Amino acid sequence: MTRYSIFSLVRNGFGGHRDWPEAWRSPDPKPEYDVVIIGGGGHGLATAYYLAKEHGVANVAVVEKDWLGGGNTGRNTTIVRSNYMIASNAHLYEKSMKLWEGLSQDLNYNVMFSQRGVLNLAHSDPQLDAFARRGNSMRLNGIDAELLDRDQVEAMVPLLDCSDDARYPVMGGLLQRRGGTARHDAVAWGYARGADSRGVDIIQQCEVTGIRRDGGRVTGVETSRGFIGAKKIGIAVAGHTGHVAAMAGLRLPIESHVLQAMVSEPVKPVLDTVVTSGAAHCYISQTDKGDLVFGGDLDGWNTYAQRGNFPIIEHVTAAVLTLFPAFSRLRLMRAWGGVVDMTMDGSPIIAKLPVEGLFLNGGWCYGGFKATPGSGWVFAHTIAQNRPHDLNAAFTLERFGQGRTIDEKGAGPVPGAH
Amino acid sequence: MTGQPFRIAEGGRIDRAKPLTFTFDGRAYQGFQGDTLASALLANGVRVVGRSFKYHRPRGIVTAGSEEPNALVQLRAGGRTEPNTRATCIELFDGLSAESQNRWPSVDFDLHALTGLFSRFMPSGFYYKTFKWPAWMWMTYEKFIRHAAGMGRSPTVADPDRYDHRYGHCDVLIAGAGPAGLAAALAAGRTGARVIVADERCEPGGSLLDHAATQGGPSAPSAAADWIAQSVAELEAMPEVTLLRRCTVFGYYDHNMLGLLEQVADHQSQSQSKADPFQPRQRLWQVRAKQVVLATGAIERPIVFAGNDRPGVMLAAAARAYVNRYGVRPGNRAVVFTNNDSAYEAALDLAAAGVAVAAIVDCRAEGGALTETARAQGMDCLTGYAVVAAKGGKRVTGVTVMALAEDGDAGGKVTGGRRAIACDLVCVSGGWNPTVHLHSQSRGKVRFDDAIAAFVPGESFQAERSAGAARGTFATAACRAEGAAAGGEAARLAGFGDTPPPAPSGDEPRQAALAPAGAPLWSVPQAPGGHGKRFVDQQHDVTAEDVALAVREGYHSVEHLKRYTTLGMATDQGRTSNVIGLAILAQLLGKDIAAVGATTFRPPYTPVCLGAITGRETGRHFAPTRRSAMHPWHQARGARFVAAGMWLRPQFYARPNEAMMDAIHREAKHVRQHVGMVDVSTLGKIDIQGPDAAEFLNRVYINGFKKLETGRCRYGVMLREDGLVFDDGTVTRLSENRYLMTTTTAHAGPVMAHLEYHLQVTWPELKVHVVSVTEEWSAIAIAGPHSRAVLERVAGGIDMSNRAFPFMGFRQGAVAGVPGRVFRISFSGELAYEINVPADHGLFVWEAMMEAGGAFDIIPYGTEAMSILRTEKGHVVGGEIDGRTSADDLGFGRMMSQAKDFIGKHSARRPGLVDGHRQQLVGLTPTDRKTRIPRGARIVAEPIGQVPKSGAATPVGMIGAVTSQCYSPNLDTPIALALVERGRDRHGEILYAASPVAGITVPVTVRDPVFIDPQGERLRG
Amino acid sequence: MHLIKCPWCGERAEMEFTYGGDGTLTRPADPEAASDAEWTDYVYFRDNPRGPHEELWQHASGCRRWIKVRRNTLTHEILATGPADRPLEGNAS
Hints:
The structure holds 3 protein chains of 3 kinds.
Chain A: H1 6-14, E1 32-38, H2 42-55, E2 60-63, E3 79-80, H3 87-101, H4 103-107, E4 118-122, H5 125-140, E5 146-149, H6 150-156, E6 172-176, E7 180-181, H7 184-197, E8 201-203, E9 208-214, E10 217-223, E11 226-235, H8 241-247, E12 254-264, E13 274-277, E14 282-286, E15 292-302, H9 310-323, E16 331-343, E17 349-352, E18 358-362, H10 368-385, H11 399-402
Parallel strand pairs in A: 1-2, 1-11, 2-8, 4-13, 11-18
Antiparallel strand pairs in A: 3-7, 4-6, 5-6, 9-10, 10-11, 12-15, 12-16, 13-14, 14-15, 17-18
Helix pairs in contact in A: 2-7, 2-10, 3-10
Chain B: E1 15-24, E2 27-33, H1 37-43, E3 50-51, E4 58-59, E5 72-75, E6 82-86, E7 96-100, H2 126-129, H3 138-148, E8 163-175, H4 179-189, E9 195-198, H5 223-237, E10 241-244, E11 247-253, E12 257-262, H6 270-274, E13 282-294, E14 298-300, E15 313-315, H7 316-324, E16 333-338, H8 342-352, E17 356-362, H9 371-376, E18 381-383, E19 385-392, E20 396-404, E21 414-422, E22 425-429, E23 432-434, H10 437-441, E24 446-449, E25 454-457, E26 464-466, H11 476-493, E27 535-537, E28 542-543, H12 544-552, H13 558-565, H14 578-589, H15 593-596, E29 608-609, H16 610-614, H17 631-636, E30 639-644, E31 647-653, H18 660-673, E32 676-679, E33 684-689, H19 693-700, E34 713-719, E35 725-735, E36 738-743, H20 748-762, E37 769-772, E38 777-783, H21 787-794, E39 810-815, E40 818-823, E41 832-838, H22 842-852, E42 859-860, H23 863-873, H24 905-908, H25 911-914, E43 919-926, E44 938-940, E45 960-968, E46 973-981, E47 990-995, E48 1000-1007, H26 1017-1020
Parallel strand pairs in B: 1-7, 8-9, 8-13, 9-10, 13-26, 15-22, 16-17, 16-22, 17-18, 32-42
Antiparallel strand pairs in B: 1-2, 3-4, 5-6, 5-7, 11-12, 12-13, 14-23, 19-20, 20-21, 24-25, 27-28, 30-31, 32-38, 33-36, 33-37, 34-35, 35-36, 38-41, 39-40, 40-41, 43-46, 43-48, 44-45, 44-47, 45-46, 47-48
Helix pairs in contact in B: 4-5, 4-11, 7-8, 12-13, 12-14, 18-23
Chain C: E1 3-6, E2 10-13, E3 18-22, H1 36-44, E4 52-58, E5 66-72, E6 78-83
Antiparallel strand pairs in C: 1-2, 3-4, 4-5, 5-6
């Protein structure tokens, strides 16, 4: 692997950039691997990377039906945060946050992790109560959190409508300064390059069509490029988890939904923080390129199509303009949808499945991107050690039957409500 | 003010009798009615109009349409300023002001252009390879990157303009009003079908408007112009046809729903717009069409060569539009560079308009159908040649031409000597891409057509078809015939009779085949020793070398290419660059373009103003505001209001010079000592009727309802099917088979849907009807020791005595003469009643009760005092019923009936809901009885010190959380409700309420959650 | 935007409806007798198919009836609609 640095960049600059090697190989699948990861998105690639790096398991293939990073990794609004109240969530996402903080260096690939802060707006007294409770939980769990009053919010986000007669008057906010954004594609590419250089085979254009079992344990995957043997199989196919799990005969507490995101045309910097509003149902930030990126609610019905409809675009845009009236004359440049697997409690499943050798990492709902490093890290541990790490011990499939759901929002078994 | 040195003396669709003044970068110019900003700038000889995104290179005008990648300006100023506006789409109006973007200090001298000096170190994706050390410096690097990027500037104040929404339903929607679209509209309209035809330009006619033959005028009558005029007149006379100008069909969604953006007033000056106060700036249409015809035309694409971004390098069709339609010479001496016939038409039109055509460089060895015509006019046609480089800085000064080798691969190979040709205009045509965006958005397939080297519509998925240039048919007559057929078919499928296609007109404008012959030339390689940048995506400064680098580094899929190089991600969404990028990628990978695949077309087709998407439902109107019937009274008494969901409720009623907390404490105290009234109209009310109503209630509440007698109320708790608490409220049996349920304000809607779900889906056999009556009734709670006495004065017909009307009783009767319902229920823990009267009479009854209470010193109280009273009484609300608590957690365990099934019962006995670690509801008081218990505090077992903003060094175990807290004026101590692990076993224990965000930890004593009157003597008295 | 045919009101826009998820669920007739596994299956587990999906919608801003809809989750085509308290016509596949 050619190390990326300012020096290699300058050296190549004089050489017309003709000597850069491929960031990853395009190998043919071997007959068998110790571990096959289904899904070449951020989570799958990170899992492969940490299997090789942390556990010495390098005889690993990542099989991807299309092109790596082409699913939700490349479709989200790139927000990174660990501002959770429930302890199991808080510790998992905080592990991820700590990995983010050194990720560009670890991967030798700049993922542009920008700790510009994530600010949740409070519009009512009960919300201030809830934010105080969450902020207190975060601080006690070892995570940074600050409760801001209205003046502090206004100073931080000057274009926000903080007037008294706003439809949702701003009463304060919960700020996590270490939160922010990262360049989503770079995360997939960086992990792919890192995993590849450690010997992992990344096999693109290879769709898994079946999971082969011998008695109670898995033996490999049927794919569009033939059978690939595997001692262990990890599923990391956000949005399609239910479909792939069905290949192993499993039903899941998951519904697939479409979540839309949109970007405006680029403008010079006007928003330096990630701002979210639960009352208005939207979140917004500005990319380094200058686009405003925003999103909101699900369209609200089961779908596997990466397309949503106009009412949600209308609603989310109205929410953005309600908070930021000055953005009215900017233009929507692009809108797209990603298929998210919504669980019955809004939290993911990172666990061994009832079939020996089969592991699941899915059900990330809205929030998979920020979890990418942590998710890969604990999933690698779970696969390599055949048991969960303390950090993901609570994220089982059995929790639903046991009444031990991890319901940050308290919305109950209605996937679209989380 | 200067003249218009590049204006042609006559011709074009501009009105020379209507001169308009405008400014660009502060300098005043003149143009004419009918100009775009782009044509007016060209007429005035302005060539550099902006700077590129990455290298800040000077850029000029490339197109004459909405596909423009370069000529983006900041239009208007102040609250109406609008960044990244395409000069080619801005219709000129008097007083228009625009500025160039992304430059400092000026567009002609931009210091950021220095980055161009380092461009060799800034290939695509360079930022992924550097800026990594030291880690903390990234935020600084990022700041510089952000400021260099970003193009135009956002407004910083609210938009003064207004936007409307309109919904349309039609039989046939036609996108585009060029030859195909107009023909389709006529064919469909003549059947009597309801037709909407929309075109993004200010007048119908499409590309015909750009042709010399369409310009007409007294000296040259034009069949094409006549046809357009007659077609438009006929369409406008049809009552069922709506012809929308300046209206872009931007999105094609599911079930034939399309989005249209009509730019109603963007072409007007402020004073013109003001003339009609009801006119919005833009109008967004959502149209549900039975059938759709896509007649969206085609977009010319450039050819890539070194220096192809220099101002003065323009698409051939754009040059043609400028001379013909706008009467502007985009240059004095042109070189035309093409791989197809269409650019010859441009050359001939340019020559006719007095532009010297220095050469036509045609990469095809044999030239094309018009080569001889051009030669006959004395033009130098270099067939088998290519432009390898354009020279010049802020404007092109000449080109270098070389022969193309016979044995060149698809990418071409240049050979032989170089020939320099001086020119100030280069007109390029690399072929035409049918505008398949809407077809693709509708989920239709696209396929690559080798004959025209472009993507064309394949199989349709929704009820749509393409016609004319949009499906790769370029000859005008054929476009009209196809349009007529498509329009007729669409109308027929929508249920309207067949029409014969209109007879083709005999006088067709000249229209040669536009398709490139053989393998098209996509990009011209560098001449030996050449190093000029060869731009694929001009706005984002993506070069052919960048594409090659991406491929070299393994970014082989189209999506990787786009994302790694940012090709096609700019405001023009790669309209003129995507296919070329794809072709270069295919060449480098040695694959067919079809095998490499197209990227997905996503809405919107062109960027849509956020204000238009939103319409009027923004700001104050984003969500409805609900007010009770008594709202005016509260307002008149100085109530401060607080939002409760969509409702506005009085929070407290401050007296003159009374501080907020003083008012709240006064109200809370007064209720317990005297009497007060609170508006509770916001509580959900559901009327439940039918012979199975009792059975139904029994199934939805944890406690039994079968034995509830007529005239009695009962408190009930509802679970979700997962066994956690959903809502609480009361049920009153009004008569034998009729009940009234109340819900919390927040859950009024969800509870109603929950009841309907179970009645209609789970137990359809139950004979029960439910209806929400929240809005039908005004509800007033009166509480305090004197409440009975007050009520006796206004509801004399009801025996109020404790024996006749006990706690949890219900009576019907007149209240202040209004037929009403009186419930003896209490949220505050005092002797209290709730009165419901028809909403229309709510204000009257409220006032009558206030008056009757005068003798007892009655006061109104708000939600804050109400909250204190209920906290003192230990009643749970949203903080406790947070969707994670079980009935037992909240102390309702014993209410759960063992004798019946109910929603959530099975779930409620799962191990996680009954184990010994559940957090249970308790009361807390500070050990010093003075310090306020902080909101949202977490309960910890041991005292802790300060926790820094960055969080505790080691996580601290939490055993509970404060859910409600207040100062109790009646007990003169702060109190709180909390959920604490095994809390019911801890009464008397000292724990700690820790709030790191408030910087305080308060020692608290755990106790029963009912602080006042645990025996209930007051409310039963 | 979906166009959904309410059996009582005719074709109406999606925004008049709210979504109710899987329409094939049956609440165990005797919850006391149901095993924990059956119960968990009812409350939490879903088929979540790619393709035809039988689901519930409520015509919330219309007649407030819950209705059954068979809709393709890959294409969003609506294949059938009908009242919630009886099986939909036609086969699911």
